[in-house]
Write the structure tokens for this entry.
Amino acid sequence: MNNVFRGFGAVFYKESLHIRRDFSTLFFSLIIPILQMFLLGYGIDTNIRQINTVIYNADGRQQSRELLDRLKNSDTFHLIRYVNNDRDLNDAIISGKCRVGIKIPVDYSDRLLHQTGAQVLVLIDGSDSSVAGQAINVTTAIGLDESLRRVLASSDATFPVEMRPKILFNPDSRSPNFFLPGLVAVLLLNVTTFLTAFSIVREKERGTLEQLFVTPVRPMGLLLGKLLPYLAIGFFELSMLLVAMRFLFRVPIHGSVLLLAFLSLPYLFVSLSLGILISSKATTQAQAMQLAFLTILPSIFFSGYIFPRETMPKFFYVLSYFVPAAYYINITRGIILRGAGWVHLWSDALVLFMMGSFLLIIAARRFHNKIIMA
Amino acid sequence: MTSSTKPSISAQHLVRRFGHFTAVDDVSFRVEKGEIFGFLGPNGSGKTTVIKMLTGLLPLSGGHAEVEGFDVNKDAEAVRENIGYMSQNFSLYTDLTVSENLTFYGRIYGLSNDHLRKRMDEVVQLNGLGPYINRLASRLSGGWKQRLALGCAMLHQPKLVFLDEPTAGIDPVARRQLWDLLFDLSGHGITFFVTTHYMDEAERCSHVAYLYFGKLIADGTPDSLRELPDVQLPGTLRIEITTPQVTRALRFAREIPGVRSATIFGQSIHALVDENCDMEGLRKELLKKNITVAEIRPLAPSLEDVFVELTSKHQAEQEATRE
């Protein structure tokens, strides 16, 4: 009689019936992440290209036009406007129509000819830091390249040092490749944390939880019985997301799909346990909903999904170690993009599994002490 | 199996405090096997708290309780194996069918498939749930919900069943049928612990107790309570005066010498009068006020009378100790 999982089978049976009866909730829970994947997969391009640029070419001669052609060919700048004075150059940026303004001074060609050092003014709108950074990098590189070519042309030498960067694992820097494996982690919350967050609080509201407490069902039996049907749903959702990612967005999976499926289980487990814990704390479904929403933003911003964890302030970097999505994103990107294997990722999976067990044990303790009833 | 002389419930000096508030104050009683034990009291008097203590949902702040021979504090799980519980709002899963609800509760108690099927047949037969077996619980009427809830609570053949206000919000026919069922089952040796507000239900119990704001102020068979000296004051008599003009009659009756107290009961007045009171004199006194009396007859106190008397006596004592 000392079976800590007592009642598991009965609760599993009942919970599966609840899910089947409430088919519309299940349907929407499954379909909404897919729709979101479509929106974000098609809509977001993290590569900065075609920045609107305004040009004030005071020189206007052959040399200056060559420079403009180089800027245009970089694919970074989109030259949409040509002006004839400083005022208009400034206004184009202040109004937000252009993010970059380039002024080629009237003596540009003369200075090049006399080798006295020509200067080009680049005005950059700093209100979007990633655009500004890209504009600085590309203009500086073009400037450096121009200078070197001119210096070398006169001395007949070769480049003493040449950097040859090679991007591994996403050579074309395709946005979906970078974006979707992380998005999977966030979207899975919709069928894990959110669904289980309601499962216990619903019984509190109906008064059926009290009835269950008078039966010999044990807390772990109750919680796992509630959790496991949703694990199956989460797994199904994961498969749908991966299929959409692979075949619609053509993100190649370099590693083993089986390993990915296996290492997803601990993440699903954590997310479900978190929902269960929320459900045991909340007293109404509305409260549970709010608490579940609380898990989304950290999963997006502190997980390395958008911003690299390494660049976070120290405090938040430490905080990010407590965000399950951080570990899972390392797993998905690892397997999908880098072709990582078990040896590279087992520790992430282990951490997730321990987090899940920890959350579930806390939830079970609350039942043991009947805090829920008081 | 414990010896049959052991009581089904033995509660000794139960105390439950919530902070500074004492919800249950030194309550002791015994419920014998096979009894229908009626547990009465006003709302908020602590009835549900006592049930929660006896079912192991709430730890005791003091005292000792054994249910079916098991200590509720030490062996709550063994207690739960042996009891059934039906809460105030028939905690059913309304999106599950009758048979699914029964299956779930059967499996919770670990019944094997064969045993479960056999017990489901028995319970369905007993409760007359047959025609509704595949209906969603949400689409059952109140009376049938109650029967299903009772069925779920009885599936594992508990020796003791707690029913917390089983007839609240149920129509009179369903109420009567439930009680017939309870008598039937108690004949098979099952003990019932029932809370209720209905006095007619209390009259049908073999044993009643009355909880008044955490204190047990009455405990015994309905007949023994009627004969309590506090209820049946020496030298007094309880009478029923039947008259068409009850309200007017009540006003005057209270002024007649020899009448100690009077209250309206439907088309009649129940009055407590001196033992040597002259009935004919009473009739004449009322006739003087133009009140025609159809009948005056002696009356045994109802349980309601008993509880009203005991409550007012208890209140008086409380005020006396406060002063």
